[in-house]
Amino acid sequence: MGVNSFDEWSPLREVVVGSAAGYDAHELDLSFRLFFTAFDDFAGQRTMPIAARYTEELCEDVEELVTALQQAGVTVHRPRARRGTSEIRTPAWRSTTTPALNIRDQAIILGDEIVETAPQVRARYFENDLLKPVFAHYFERGARWTSMPRPVMADTSFDLTRAHDRAMDPGHALPVDGGMAGADTGAGGGVEMMFDAAQCLRLGRDLLVNVSAAHHALGARWLGRHLGERFRVHLMRGLDNNHIDTQVLPLRPGTLLLRGPHVLDHLPEPLRRWDTIYVPEPDLREFPSYGAQDLPLTGLYIDMNVLSLDESTVIVNSQAPRLVKALETRGFTVVPVRHRHRRLFAGGFHCFTLDTVRAGSGPEDYF
């Protein structure tokens, strides 16, 4: 069998788990600053080193996740590790590639198809090359394999609306990579299609898609045309500036994990009737303390980024005890796995994994 995954909760059989090896810095270029809204932080600084201790501890935690999955009977695949510093240079920009850690960001499994999406951060442009052996393995087993069009990612490719809005405030400078505008992009030299797979959640025949920028909208339009009648695409506008899975995650048919009641207004009407579990308000004491030269990339709700093994079993960060208790109170079996530096590396267990085979029989209609 090739890939087979239509939702977020059917019994998990095979999964890819990302690798943090070699993650030693963030590239603070235009695309990074736009994605993480760090318009004025570390002004004039091009790279932000990551302390080796943090990466070593992250690698330990990722291996604990692999062990937990294997003990649950799940087959685990891994990407190739990034070795050394891999410089990227195109006619439009230069950067340094990141390891394939948050692998759900760059690919989505839709039934029997792998869809690679168009990156939003330049440093991630060739990240999926580290996953090519895994994807080739599934292709040989019968999977379909598609790539969204690759963007040029020149300065003019990005929707700068939010950056301009922020720059209106005193002390906030609009980020530019002057001298790397590259080439005309998009229709008539405008915004390009850039869209992360982690903007999507799968619920059988229905696909929830978060859109908060013009380049997201282009990616969502491509995805809708590509899928045709196979899936129903529901757009949720402005739910989150980045990814959907720190706002809402379906845990099983009829139950949603939500960041808060405000999310309900963004959901399709059928989902508003589902049971809801609200994430307990985060406690800063559950997170490590960092210094002035460390760069937390996510908010405190990152721990809701859980991974379902089946409709009743969820892998949850052991460092979030109140979330563990909230899920157990609602009848879920929780598999606790440690994840210390989730804010520094912008991902949780859902981000770190790509569930390639689940035991669901097909695109069920849960609406």
TrEMBL record:
Q: Which SUPFAM superfamilies match?
A: Pentein
What family does the Swiss-Prot or TrEMBL record give for this protein?
A: Belongs to the amidinotransferase family.
Q: Provide the coiled-coil residue spans.
A: none
Q: What is this protein called?
A: Inosamine-phosphate amidinotransferase
Q: Determine the domain of life of the protein's source.
A: Bacteria
GO MF assignments:
amidinotransferase activity
Q: List, alphabetically, the InterPro entries matched.
A: AmidinoTrfase
UniProt keywords (A-Z) are: Transferase
Q: Where is the active site?
A: 196, 243, 351 (amidino-cysteine intermediate)
